[in-house]
Design a protein that fits this description.
Layout: E1 4-8, H1 16-31, E2 35-40, H2 45-58, H3 63-81, H4 83-103, E3 106-109, H5 113-120, E4 125-128, H6 136-141, E5 154-160, H7 169-179, E6 184-187, H8 190-198, E7 204-205, H9 215-222, E8 233-237, H10 243-256, E9 259-262, H11 286-294, E10 298-301, H12 304-312, E11 316-320, H13 333-341, E12 348-349, H14 352-359, H15 365-391
Parallel strand pairs: 1-2, 1-4, 2-3, 4-5, 5-6, 6-7, 8-9, 8-10, 10-11, 11-12
Helix pairs in contact: 3-4, 9-11, 10-14
Length: 392
């Protein structure tokens, strides 16, 4: 009998990493022989939003949280007030929407958790996917906690991330409550395993879903999806606003005779980026994003998923810290886990001096290739065992 699996993921978040990991989760489970569908959560905005709004009210005076959100607000204001910028963002959002419509197998929409729970009763298990789905605000939203899943249906967490390194007592208690109902738990970061342990459960650290597909599989999916510039280029994907990161990329391009190709203004509007790149496309969907990275001479990024794909496609890459001085709002731990697992912590740039040193060292991917292959096999085995239990 075929195992039926429903996935709770952020399939509707217009971000390259978010959409690619949600796609990879569905594809990897499908390739394990399961009948799989991704839950379309877009009808649940009202019920999820109620919990999230309550969280923001409770944290009204949490300055570090609002500081972290300031860039998103500026991006939205720019979108609404600058016609040219708004048109560029519309192009990108259309590319995202077309990708999501084309590539996901989505369930019907539901307006209440009760309706969704009834639907999920027909599945062997519900899997909560990767990305920062257990951020405190998402715990408050009570969707990615899988609290709607009825008894008799197993709950599985694959590579789920808390997005932060610490939880206060209130949200640690809430995590303990929902994690107690899970049949199998895996996380993406070492810090996440520690938080699960503090909540009274054990969790394995597994690879991000995008790493479950190998280089050749991603290549077959993305090859020919867009026009790749004929001249060599440095692929730049910066989500933060640190100007010195861009300066390093420009110096690298000048030193190596490359152009700068940048995918800009994703989560924040960064004015510096308006005149930063030689090539700056906007109507790029997630597969095209992968193809542009895969054909780059170098990659400069502060993104977790751009670092993942740099490892997969064996690019000479430089990973910068996105968050500086953000305390508990920082998501730096995921980079530490990834690069540590790949034996590439030396590619992490903390300063311009670090960049100059790293630029002198070329990555030998022979060791990384073996580490990645083993990590993928271990993670797929974990997922297979978690889902096979549903069919027993």
């Amino acid at each position: 009998m075929t195992t039926k699996v429903a996935i709770a993921s952020c399939h509707d978040k217009y971000n390259y990493g978010s959409l690619l990991q949600a796609y990879a989760t569905e594809k990897a489970i499908e390739r394990l022989g399961c009948d799989v569908i991704t839950i379309d959560k877009r009808g649940l905005g009202k019920v999820i939003g109620a919990g999230r709004r309550k969280y923001y009210k409770e944290n009204l005076f949490n300055l570090s949280m609002y500081k972290a959100k300031l860039g998103f607000v500026k991006h939205r204001v720019k979108h609404l007030t600058d016609r040219d910028f708004g048109e560029k963002m519309a192009e990108r959002n259309n590319a995202f929407a077309s990708f999501a419509e084309r590539e996901f197998s989505l369930s019907p929409r539901f307006s209440t958790f009760e309706e969704l729970g009834e639907y999920c009763a027909d599945f062997n298990s519900v899997v909560v996917g990767s990305d920062q789905l257990w951020l405190p605000v998402n715990i408050a939203g009570d969707y990615f906690t899988l609290s709607f899943v009825p008894e008799g249906v197993r709950k599985v967490a694959y590579a789920t991330s808390f997005g932060v390194s610490t939880l206060n007592d209130v949200y640690l208690a809430r995590a303990a409550e929902f994690l107690a109902t899970f049949s199998a738990i895996s996380v993406r970061e070492i810090t996440g395993a520690s938080l699960v342990k503090r909540a009274g459960r054990d969790a394995d650290v597994v690879c991000d879903p995008t790493m479950l597909l190998c280089k050749d599989e991603w290549g077959a999916l993305t090859r020919g999806s867009c026009a790749v510039p004929p001249e060599p280029y440095v692929f730049c994907y910066f989500l933060g606003k640190n100007a010195w990161n861009r300066d390093c990329a420009k110096r690298l391009a000048k030193l190596t005779g490359c152009k700068v190709l940048a995918i800009s203004h994703l989560d924040e509007y960064v004015g510096y980026d308006d005149d930063f790149a030689d090539v700056q496309p906007y109507d790029i969907d997630p597969f095209q994003w992968v193809e542009l990275l895969a054909n780059a001479r170098y990659v400069c990024t502060d993104s977790f998923h751009a670092s993942v794909f740099s490892c997969l496609f064996e690019k000479q890459f430089f990973t910068f810290r996105r968050h500086e001085g953000m305390g508990t709002q920082s998501t730096n731990s995921r980079l530490d886990t990834l690069l540590g697992k790949m034996g590439l912590l030396g590619r992490l740039c903390e300063s311009e001096a670090d960049f100059d040193q790293i630029a002198e060292d070329e990555i030998d991917f022979i060791n990384t290739r073996k580490l990645l292959s083993d990590y993928r096999a271990e993670s797929l085995d974990w997922l297979r065992r978690a889902l096979e239990a549903d069919a027993s």
